[in-house]
Protein 1
Amino acid sequence: MSSAPPRICLTGATGGLGSRVLHHLLHTLSVSPSSITISTPNPSPKPFPHNISIRHGDFLTPSTLPSAFAGASILLLVSYPSIAHDLRVTAHKNAINAAIEAGVKHIVYTSLAFAGDSQAAVMQAHIETEAYLKETCAAREGVKYTIIREGIYCESWALYLGFFDPGQEAEKRTVKVPEGADKGIAWVGRDELGEGTARILTRGKEFAGKTVLLSGSETVSVRGVAGLVSGIMGWKGEEAAVVEELGMERWVAEMVAMRLQGGEDEVEETKGFMEKWGSTYPAIQKGELAVVDPLLENLLGRKLESMEQSLQKQLKDVKGTKESIGQYAK
C-alpha cells in the first residue's frame, strides 16, 4: 500500500513567483490539486482550481496561521512583499513559528541571491530570516529547512537600471546608476525560478538542510542590459541609452528629484528608499550577483532563457515594463 503524497502548503500563490510555482506544480509536475493547500490573507477561489484547499492565513495576524498550515508536511514560505525590515522579519518569524506549531516538517524559504554577509539593504531581512529559520529547525527534532536564494528576475531589469523607462524621449535615455555598471548579474526568468522552486518542493528530502542558489546561466552587466535594450528598441547613435555612473549622494538626489516629478510627494520617505536601494550597487560591484550556479538548469533539464531573449519578449510591451518598475520598487 503506497503512502499518501506529501501535502504542500503555498504562501504567496497569487504573486509573481508563487503563482508560477503553483502553475508548474499543477501543469508541469502533475501534482494533484488535492495535495496542495494555499494560505492567503485574502482567500478567494477565483484564481485557483476548484479542488485546491484555500485557507485564510495572514503573516501579520499570527493566530490565523496554524490552521492555514495544518495538515501540510512542506511549507513554501515566500518572502513577505515589503521593504520595511522589521515588518518583513516579523512576518517571516510568525510564519515559521506557526508552521512548527502546525506540525510542518519541512519549511522552504525563498531568499535572495545576494551574499550571506551582504550589506545590501534589500538582503538584510533575508539574512535575519535565514538565521532564525536555521536556529528554529535545529531546536526542533524532525523539522527541516531549505533556503532558496532566488536569482535576480530578468523582469526587474528597469529597477536595476536606475528606474529606467524605455518609453522616454530620446534626450532622456540616460541610465543613471552608482558605480557597478560593468559588473555582471546572473539574471534569470521568474517563470524558470517558479519551475525550479516547484521541483525542489517535490524533491524535498534531497535539499533538506541546504541553502541553494537558483541563478541564470550567464551574466550581463547593467551597461550590457542598456545595450541590449537599445538594440532591441532600434535605438542607434545618439538615440541609444547611455549609462552614467554617479557618486552615491548625487545619485540619491537625482533619483529623489525624478520620483518627485513622477508624483511622489514624501521627500524623506522617497530619500530613505533611494538610500536603501542605493546599497544594492556596492554589492553588485563586489560581484555578489555574478555567481552562476548550474543547479537551476540541471533541475529544468534544459538551457535557460537568455537575458536578451527575455528582453525581446518584455519590450514588446513598453507599458508592461513601466508597470514592473512599480511592482518591484516597493
Note: Residues 85-102 form the longest helix (18 residues).
Protein 2
Amino acid sequence: MAPEPIIRHATEQDVHTIHTLIHELAAYEREPPSTIQATPSTLLNTLSFPSSSSSSSSSPSTTQPSGFAKCFLVVCPPSARKEDEEEAEEVAGMALYFTNYSTWTGAPGIYLEDLFVREAYRGRGYGKALLKELAREVGRIGGRRLDWSVLKWNKPSIDFYESEAVGAKMMSEWVGMRVEGEALRRLAGGKEEG
C-alpha cells in the first residue's frame, strides 16, 4: 500500500509555491500565462493562513480572518520522494477554496476554486485525498455541501468526480455567470476602487 500523503493548510511561506501551481494549472487548462493576474503579493494579501505553526489537518482550522480563501497543499510523503529530495518538502498539488452559503440548506458550504495535482503525482490518490480533506472541512464548519466547477472538455476529471470514489453529480440545470473588467465597473456605477 502506498504511503499516505500529508495534507496541510498553506502558510505565508507557501505563497510562491501556490503561485507556481496556479501557473501550472493555467498551462493544464490551456490558458496563456498572461491571463494570470495573481502575484505572490496579491496571494499573500488575500489568502487566509493558519494562526499558528501547528496546523494539522486533523485539528479544526484556525486562520487569520483577513483573507478571502484558504489553500490545502498535498505533500508527497517522505518515503515516496526522490532520493535527492529527502530534505525538501515536495508539494504535489493544492485545493484552493472559500466558504459560501446556501439559502436552500440554511448552512455554509465550501466552494472549491481550484483543485490541481502536478502531472508527476497524478494517479496516486492525491486528488481524492484533497477532496476528502475538503469534505472534512465542510463538516468542521457545520456545512452541508461542497461545490466546484470543471471545464466541459476535462473528461478525465469529470469521470473521476462522478465516480463512486467521489460521488459528485453534474449540475446541468445551472449555468455559470460572471461580470468582470469594464462590465463590472459599469455595473458598480463608476470607477473600480483599488
Note: The helical segments are 15-28, 40-46, 126-140, 155-162, 181-188.
Protein 3
Amino acid sequence: MSSNLLSYVGWTFLPNLVTGWIQSLYYGITIRAGDPKPQPGTPRYLKHRRRIHIAVIVIYLLYAIYEADYWVRQSGDFFQDLNLPIDADERKIKSRFRRLAAIHHPDKAVSPEDHAFAEIYFVKLKSAQDTLTDTTKRFAYERFGPDILSWQHVSSIRDYITVGLQSSAPLYAGSALVMWRYLVFVCLGIVEYHTLTRPYWSPFLTKVLNPLLTTFTSHPPLLPFQFLALAHKAVFTFFIALGQLSPPLARPNQPTTSSSSAFDEQQLQRLEQMAMNTEIESGRLLGLEMAPVLGDEAAQNDMKRKVSEWLVQNTIRSDPEVRDAIGRFRQKRRVGAPTGARQSVPS
C-alpha cells in the first residue's frame, strides 16, 4: 500500500510538470529566435500540450510497470537463492542446500566481516530450504511470498489463505472507492482468489506468461506471488493513467465566435493593465534615479546632455537604416580617395 501511495503522489504532479518542461524545450528547438511562440490558452498551444501530455502519461505508465518488474526481480526468491528451477522437488532442494552449505558455512570464513556475511547468507539458505521442503509452507510461499515467514499462529494451508486474503482486502476496498472501476477489480479479485486457493498454479501463468518470458526474453519465470504483485501494480497505475488521459483524449469543443471575441477582449484588457503597470513602475524608477540631483540645475543639465549622447550613440546610430545612410554619405564625400582610406562606420 505504501508503494501505491508513493506512486499516486508521483502521478499527481509529475506528468503536468514534465509536460511543461518538454513543451518549453520543444518550442525552444522548433521555433527560431525572434519568432513568436504560441501563448497559453491559444488553440495551437493547447493542441501541442494535449499531444505531449498524452505521450508523457503513456511513457510514465510503461516506466511504472517496468519499475515494478525490476524490483520484483531484484528482490529475488528462494528458488534463485538455491539456483534451482521453480519445479524442483524436495530431493533436489536438499541436495543443493547441502552443496551450498558446505561452501558458504560460517565456520569457513576467515575474517570477522566474512563470518558475519556468511552467517547471514547461511541463514537465508536455511530458510529457503526449510520453506521449500515443507509442503504447506511452499504452497503459501509461492502464493504470498516471503511475508509468510513473519506470520504467526498459522499451520495449515487454510490458515495461510485466510491471513493472505485478509492482507489483500484493503487493496480492493480502498481502490474501488477511489477509482470506481468495479468490474476490473472484480475480475482481478477472481484471478487472485483462484491463484491463491488452488493447489496448482494458474494455467495463464504456466502455459502463457512464463513460456513467453523464458522463450523470448531473459526474464526468469514468475512465481504466483510475483505475478500478483505485478498485476496489482499494473492495474493501479493503469487506472491512474486512465484518469489523467481522459481530459486530453476528449476532443475540445470548437470555440464559437462570441467566446473567441470574449477571449480576445480579455487578453487586450490584460495587456492594457500590464502596460499601465509598466508605465507606473518606470516612473517610480525614474524618480529614484533623479532623486540625487533634484534642486541642482547644473547637475540636471549635465545629466540631460549625457542621456542625449547615450541615446544618439546607442539607439539612433545603432539602427541599421541610419548606419547605412551614414555610410553612403561618407562614401559620396570620399569619392576618388584611395581604396585603403575608405572606412566603414564604427560600430
Note: The longest helix spans residues 257-290.
Protein 4
Amino acid sequence: MPARELSLARDDANDHKAHRIITQIVLTGTRVLGRAFAEAYKQAAASSQHSRAAGSNISSPGTANSFASSGLTLEEACKILNVKPPQGGKTDMDSVMERFKTMFDRNEPTKGGSFYLQSKILRARERIELEVREAAEAMEREAELKEGWRPKVWKDR
C-alpha cells in the first residue's frame, strides 16, 4: 500500500504542475495577444492621422494630386482609359464608357486577360465618374447659392 500511496502523491504533484503550466501558457498568450492588439491599434491610429493630414494638404478636389478611395489620381485614370481629363468638371462620358467597356472586355481573365488590369480599368472609370459627379454637385450648389434661398410657403402656391 505505501507504494500505491506514493504513486498517487506523484500523480497529484504532476496534476498540480500541469495546471500550473497550462495557466502560465494561457497568461503568456493573453499578454502577447494584448500587446499585439495594442500595437495594431497604435499603428491604425497613426495611419488615420497621416491620411487626415495628407487629406488636409490637398488644395481642391479637382487637382491631379487628389486621390479617390482607390488611390488613383485623375491624371492616372485618364491615362489608363486614354481619354482627355474633364475640363471644368465636364467630359464626354460616352467616350469614357466606350473605352472602359472595350478595355474591360479585352482583359477578361477567362479570355487570357488580367484581373489586375481589369481592376485598374474599373477604378479609373470610377475615378473619372467621381470627378464629374463632384463637379456637377459643386455647380448645383453654386447655382443654388446664386439663386438664393427661396422656401416654398403656403402663399406662393
Note: Confidence is low (pLDDT under 50) at residues 59-66.
